[in-house]
Design goal:
Oligomer: single chain
Number of strands: 0
Order of helices and strands: HHHHHHHHH
Strand content: under 5%
Helix content: over 70%
Shape: elongated
CATH architecture: Orthogonal Bundle
Structural class: mainly alpha
Radius of gyration: 15 Å
Bound molecules: magnesium ion
Number of helices: 9
Length: about 160
């Protein structure tokens, strides 16, 4: 299942390495972490069933919207990434929920600042025919969860 998820993300322009790069940049100031650690932690997040289900669902909605296969008025709302829609964020929070409140805080930050791959995905959704309404939040969720995972592991090491 993890391999299906990884190739599905790739098809939507989301490389695991780019998410890991972002996680690495975010954690580097606080924790002794390598890019390799970041990749491992992103992959661990992708092994969780709840996370896989969220990714499958969110990316599928983006694809259906891109193909015009959702009924109005929802189709237009998703296509224009209406800021009052909010279901994309709610769905992605189920990724960070697995990792407690640190994951939640990280997600809020990433969703607001949209660094790295998150900004790229968001911009592509707004400037091309691609629909990335759920994708940017999913990437934020995965990155936030991986950061939380690293933070939790680090805390244990120091006790
Ligand atoms: Mg979104």
């Amino acid at each position: 299942m993890k391999e299906i998820i990884i190739s599905m993300l790739k098809e939507r322009g989301i490389e695991i390495k780019k998410i890991a790069q972002l996680v690495y940049e975010l954690q580097k100031p606080y924790i002794d972490v390598t890019l390799e650690d970041a990749i491992i932690n992103v992959e661990k997040v992708l092994e969780k069933r709840e996370v896989q289900n969220t990714i499958l669902t969110g990316l599928q909605i983006d694809i259906l919207a891109e193909e015009g296969l959702i009924k109005e008025p929802l189709l237009s709302i998703i296509r224009r990434d209406d800021s009052l829609y909010g279901i994309d964020e709610i769905l992605a929070l189920s990724i960070t929920n697995v990792y407690g409140s640190i994951g939640f805080t990280n997600f809020g930050y990433l969703d607001k600042v949209k660094p790295g791959i998150i900004g790229e995905i968001d911009k592509a959704g707004k400037t091309t025919e691609k629909v990335h309404t759920f994708a940017d939040d999913i990437v934020s969720g995965i990155a936030a969860a991986a950061c939380a995972r690293i933070a939790h592991a680090n805390e244990k090491d120091h006790k």
